[in-house]
Amino acid sequence: MKEATIRLIDGYEFISYHPEQFSNEETLQHSQEFYRWLDSRRSVRDFSDKPVPRKAIENILRSASTAPSGAHKQPWTFCVVADPALKKEIRMAAEKEEHDSYHGRMNEEWLQDLKPLQTDWKKPFLEIAPYLIVVFKKAYDILPSGEKRNNYYVSESVGIACGFLLAAIHKAGLVALTHTPNPMNFLSKILKRPANERPFLLIPVGYPAKETFVPKLKRKVLENVVEFYDAV
Ligand code: IYR
To answer: Has this prediction a pTM greater than 0.85?
Structure first.
């Protein structure tokens, strides 16, 4: 490993960066292996109640918090809910909203689009999964003095952090669901979050149930999601 050196630029400390480098062949191999591994991740709705080590959750959240963010503000709070009474409260509130969504708030096209997933308003996984990670985005920061400070590209930043979070969960052999009860403001109330935080995603985490089935989905092929602009 090359030793890191410090350089002062306009009074700010920079550190030399030496990311791992591979041969072209190794680069190809690593990219393929990573794709295959990431492609094996699936959203899961059937959880086991088997306990998950708290330290694993802490490491997963450390990974999520390495995500790039606007002006490096890291505008996120991950609330980790393990208390059964709180999980029950969240389930009740989510199901109330979801019931109304499935019975009138979502239009026919939306309901048809969800048919292959076979979801409904009932969310038992919110009580079964050992942990609920409730992700909040921070529209702005509040300094200890009470002064407000701006955050930038907040949704982009928190979205990327959630991507890292899901990858870290997968790496640990755990499963998750990116759940979006709508509206989500009940989460701010139940978890008593400050005014600068808005709920972003509700992510139950745990081991999969003994028997877990997921929809047999096909992912779009590269040609349908990528446009290359090569020299002609
Ligand atoms: N929030 C509802 C509905 C739902 C919406 C989408 I878009 C999904 O991909 C899946 C579900 C629910 O969680 O059931």
So the answer is: yes
